[in-house]
Amino acid sequence: MMTDQASPMTTSDYKRVATRTGALDRRPLRLAMMACAGIVFLCSQPVSQAAEAGNGVEKSFWTIGVYAGPSPLRLSPAPNASNPVLRGTDVTDMAVDTVAHPFLVVEGSRYYMFFTAKDLASDSGGIGLAESSDGLKWKFRRTVIREPFVTSHPYVFQWRGEYYMIPEAHTETSVRLYKATAFPDKWEYSGDLIQGDHFISPTLARYKEMWWMFTVRPGNETLRLFYASDLRGRWTEHPLSPIVAKDPRTARPAGTPFVLYGKLYRLGQDCYPRYGYQVRAFEITDISPTTYSERMIEIPLAQATANGWNAEAMHHVDARQIGPNRWLALVDALGK
After folding, report:
1. pLDDT of 278-300, one tens digit each?
2. H or E element: which one contains 30?
3. pTM score, whole prediction
4. Contact (Cβ atoms closer than 8 angstroms) between residue 116 and residue 42
5. Predicted local confidence at residue 2, as pLDDT
6. Which DSSP category does 230 fall into?
7. What does R_g of the chain's alpha carbons equal in angstroms?
8. Domains (ranges, CATH) in the chain?
9. Exposed, middle or buried, 161 (CB in 10 Å: 0-12/13-18/19+)?
10. pLDDT for 306-324, tens place per residue?
11. Angle at CA 214, nearest 5°, toward 240 and 322?
12. Following DSSP, what letter does each residue of 31-57 receive, concatenated?
């Protein structure tokens, strides 16, 4: 993970510290809870697309765009990008209407985007791959994972010279690990990291010589934390887990965690006043096998604008440092 020289933005007084019970004091608005609970997975019930179909109203779609800035906490639409840079219609080997959850890999002079590609009506799809020479203009390359069950949210990372992926498989009861046999095109299933529940948006961070996994339960309001000393070793649920309980404003992961000035940040979806409305960052002020605390950054990283391709929602930001005080981020958005 990389650091940056830009100063973090001012944090609000809104702080959360986990206690030994694992319960966090939150009183989310009932409307927010209903909004997220009614849309457990992006791939299941996005209101705009489902409700507008067939009634003569122009449909909204999830698409992917590019943001940039001097820090992962200070992002805006990339000046030379024509957003959205990827639509469902750009996927040529599957019939899909939704692209979302983009994860960015920079390998040499090439940029690779792994993303959810899905047809909402049939609840089918897979993991797509797009490529770019500059990170601004993107071309679909191929579908790289397609299983009998639904896969999405393709969290991609490199470890000891190898590339791995843990896509969400929300109908299954495990966190599935894939390994690239010929990056970026070929991947094979390599085993389960955790079993026994439905794990939504599993997201890893390597920090302080430990592996940390953030994953939300169905309903988007309960964030669990696991840790392991080895990627393939025994994963243990943190004694303070869930670290977010009954709060759809902050629970669901929303992109790759990053390190800035030596501090680890996680990203979370804010589902109020509607599902996936904006993305917030949380500075993790303490993390160990027995302790956890975080505080929310006051200004969102990305949020709906009420106009165009990102009018209705933005619920994912994946940022990488590409130079001194230069960050590039892939984002997704719901709009027309």
Report:
1. 999 999 999 999 999 999 999 99
2. helix 30-37
3. 0.86
4. yes
5. 40
6. S
7. 18
8. 11-335 (2.115.10.20)
9. exposed
10. 999 999 999 999 999 999 9
11. 135
12. HHHHHHHT---TTT--HHHHHHTTTTS
